[in-house]
Amino acid sequence: MSQIFTSLQTFYCKPGVSQKFKNKIGMIAVKEIDENTRVMDLPLYNGQWVYTKDLKEKNIIDYSTIQSLQELYQNKKLFMQDLNHQYTFIPSIPIREYHGAMFINQSKSDSNVALRPNGYYTTKKVSRGEELLLISRDEILVK
């Protein structure tokens, strides 16, 4: 039973309508979050990177599916630095659950979350109802 209460104490955000980007989903704080709080662990993805060109040329999957996979796994690309969509991540198991990392939006000016080797941390105090925004790709700080 104590594990349930611990889990509730570390429940900081949920998917919701983005306040910064119209018609997009973002991660919204469900309570006040102090600075330097780990709001999400790093996701564990099972799968592999495939050349997007190969997927298109061999007609393995349609282009809209490729685009959907690139959107879902866009934050994973931070580690690949694949800004030209040369690669697409293909999961090896069916996607039945989504990780918050798939929904956290990036921002150059209003960011309040940084990616670190063991998770996503707030860089300043975040109010309840505020959108969590990851530091933009070209300004990533790993400490």
Name the descriptors:
about 140 residues; alpha+beta; Beta-clip-like; four-stranded mixed beta sheet; globular
Can you put this structure into words, describing what you see?
The protein is globular and about 50 Å long. 19% of the residues are buried. The protein has 143 residues and is α+β, with helices and mostly antiparallel strands. The chain contains three helices and nine strands. The longest helix is centred in the middle third of the chain and has 10 residues, at 63-72. It has a four-stranded mixed beta sheet with strand order 1-2-9-6, with no helix packed on it. It has a three-stranded antiparallel beta sheet with strand order 3-8-7, with no helix packed on it. Mean pLDDT is 81; it is low at 138-143. It folds into two domains: 10-42 and 100-139, Beta-clip-like, CATH 2.170.270.10; 47-91, no CATH class.
